[in-house]
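Re: How this chain folds, sequence and tokenised backbone to follow

Filed under: protein folding, tokenised backbone structure, sequence and structure records.

Contents: The amino acid chain and a row of whole-number tokens, matched residue for residue.

Body of memo: The sequence and its backbone structure tokens, given next.
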Amino acid sequence: MTDRELFYRHLGLPSFTPMGLEIIKAEGVWLTGSDGTRYMDMVSGISVSNIGHRHPKVLAAISAQLEKYLHLNVYGEFIHSPQVRLAKSLTDLLPSSLDSVYFVNSGSEAIEGAMKLAKRFTGRQEVVAFHNAYHGSTQGALSILGNEELKRAFRPLIPDVRFLRFNNFNDLAEITDKTACVVAETIQAEAGLILPEEDFLVQLRKRCNETGTLLVIDDVQMGFGRTGTFLSFEHFGFVPDILVLAKALGAGMPLGAFIAPKKIMNTLAFNPELGHITTFGGHPVSCAAALAGIEVLLADGLLSEVEEKGRQFEERVCKHRAIQSYRRRGLAIGLDLKNPDQRQPFMEATLKNGVIIDWYLFQPATFRIAPPLTITADEIDEACSRLTEALDSVS
């Protein structure tokens, strides 16, 4: 059987209409199909490949680690050099209160760990999240997903979850001294890239302080340079109690983390001992890749280029006559088509033109542009030309 036949016969698929591209190589912003067609990845593997696919420094770090060891033992028993050095690197880049890192395998797992930690530390049960928020697909993460259509079939989920409206200041009063934590994105990604209104996140932080509630920030999609700062919450003048990371953290390898003050994190170590455990979280190879990825992100000056690169897309694509409106922060862009019925023709046109884009989960007529931060000026020019041609075809 061919790989394509095996794909449809033996893989569990989340939909009956997958894109079905067979990719045999990826490098930088380019994906190569089995027929030799080259595609420009304008979504970075959904915000994973922020420094491009197969960056040479990441490959070198992986290769060097392979010569030493892979998995050793259950998390928290053996000292893995890549793991502890990555924890040190992250905490050096974060506010001083965020000084303890727990590594897991994905964003969903990190959310699960953060919710457990908040309940354990506060002794409370209620969790507050926001409508149109996306935090993952496991049971706990699904419980705080702010879209009933996607989770109705899987109820009952965890109890004591309350949803507020993002950017609604009045709703903040619903956070009380019974609330263990509020889980929020700084920018609501799958809602169509919804930016926070002036001072909203600061007021959210203030209300959490007033009620003794922990503020959990999910920076899974918007972290690691996507908005022009190392992490997106740096734009907004506050510090979370628990920070959740994944996707680009691993520079192409599976890795997630939740980060908190040591006094909070330590509550997972007693009553009960082993309050949170993982077999593969913080895998040495993933951590080695992550260390190299952070080095590239900071040493190559990519962060300082993000805003200008985003502005080029804004001028060339976002103001096209086929676009109703758009939102942008750095190299995270949401485009609303004037005619929602043109969603499928637009997708087909972009693919025909050799560009990979996708739509936001809760806004199917809103498209995501989030290319690798390493994209060059010439590649931006080419991508904009291809996207403009696709927009011309549906305008």
